TrEMBL record:
This is low-specificity L-threonine aldolase. One of its GO terms (cellular component) is cytosol. The lineage of its organism: Eukaryota, Viridiplantae, Streptophyta, Embryophyta, Tracheophyta. Its cofactor is pyridoxal 5'-phosphate. GO terms for biological process: glycine biosynthetic process; L-threonine catabolic process. Threonine aldolase involved in threonine degradation to glycine. May play a role in the removal of L-allo-threonine. Its EC number is 4.1.2.48.
């Protein structure tokens, strides 16, 4: 029987801390749909302040936060949003902007660092003279950090340039900032500066920050007023939501300072994995808390089988592609866990190589 579990599937798997549980138990609550929950008000006000925006709104998930944001900016059905071809909104959010909002995605290729070429963004904007034939461009979306690109950070300078393009053409800019605090810590740039050019931002509290549930969207007061109505439409209005906001407030207060350590552990992890035969890791791409390992082309090991063998040792991981595995570090992973996983990984690779298992 496996006694030790090291869960690296995502930073969403963390358990609430004792401080979070205590805050949830003692939270001062009321009906938030009626606008009366004091703990929700306190948390949303603090998030707006930290992010440098006028107002904020707590939502059940990052997917809902992104969906609401896109729909506020694209109120007319048939609107078009420009976003990365490998972005979370485009790949992992069930096509909600199209199926629910009638918003058309126009993708631009994501570079390995998560950016999109500025000239390609501008070229993707529909010309008003083609309105009879084409959707109307109304929004640009960025993702920071960019998960599918390995948790890479998007600089404030790049974001500013995209913001300038948006303003030039009368468009809005939304940032999927699920892990924006990871980017802030890694870049050494205040989070409000990273999102200064954005009209709206979604922030996940249950990823790197370790809260059990919820995301926050921030923007202007007018934007949040519209977002609140859409949250109700989508079934996201919750009553005594202060119970959840209390845990999110603790996450914001206690766990931002732990992100730097998570990033150091990810780099330690990447360096160790690079020493294992049959595996390769681009250590220069490990900027935050994600590590993507690639299995060498000549190997007979598949990501699925590697993850199965690791699970037998209590190590949980997820295949990222037909040749790679994603590993995500969070504040409840210790350095001793990293050493244990490296030992298990080496043993698993040796076992699978010896068995000659094919992909």
């Amino acid at each position: 029987m496996v006694m030790r579990i090291v869960d690296l599937r995502s930073d969403t798997v963390t358990k609430p801390t004792e401080a979070m549980r205590a805050a949830m138990a003692s939270a001062d609550v009321d009906d938030d749909v009626l606008g009366s929950d004091p703990t929700a008000h306190r948390f949303e006000s603090e998030m707006a302040r930290v992010m440098g925006k006028e107002a904020a709104l707590f939502v059940p998930s990052g997917t809902m936060g992104n969906l609401i944001s896109v729909l506020v900016h694209c109120e007319v059905r048939g609107s078009e949003v420009i976003l990365g071809d490998n972005s979370h909104i485009h790949v992992y959010e069930n096509g909600g902007i199209s199926t629910i909002g009638g918003v058309h995605p126009r993708t631009v290729k994501n570079n390995p660092d998560g950016t999109m070429d500025l000239d390609q963004i501008e070229a993707a904007i529909r010309h008003p003279e083609g309105a009879l034939y084409y959707p109307t461009t109304r929004l640009i979306c960025l993702e920071n950090t960019h998960a599918n690109c390995g948790g890479r950070c998007i600089s404030s300078e790049y974001t500013d340039r995209v913001g300038e393009i948006a303003k030039k053409h009368g468009l809005k800019l939304h940032i999927d900032g699920a892990r924006i605090f990871n980017a802030s810590v890694a870049l050494g740039v205040p989070v409000h500066r990273l999102v200064q050019a954005a009209d709206s931002v979604s922030v996940c509290m249950s990823k790197g920050l370790g809260a059990p549930i919820g995301s926050v969207i921030v923007g202007s007061s007018e934007f949040i007023t519209k977002a609140r109505r859409l949250r109700k439409t989508l079934g996201g209005g919750m009553r005594q939501v202060g119970v959840l906001c209390a845990a999110a407030y603790v996450a914001l207060r206690d766990n931002v300072g732990k992100l730097e350590d998570d990033h150091k552990k990810a780099k330690l992890f990447a360096d160790g994995l690079k020493q294992i035969k049959e595996l390769t890791v681009d250590t220069s791409s490990v900027e935050t808390n994600m590590v993507f390992l690639d299995i060498v082309e000549s190997s007979h090991i598949s990501p699925e089988r590697l993850c199965q063998v690791l699970e037998e040792h209590g190590v949980l991981a997820m295949p990222a592609s037909s040749t790679s595995v994603r590993l995500v570090v969070h504040h409840q992973i210790l350095e001793s866990d990293i050493r244990y996983v490296l030992a298990c990984m080496k043993q698993a690779v040796q076992e699978l190589s010896t068995d000659g298992i094919t992909k």
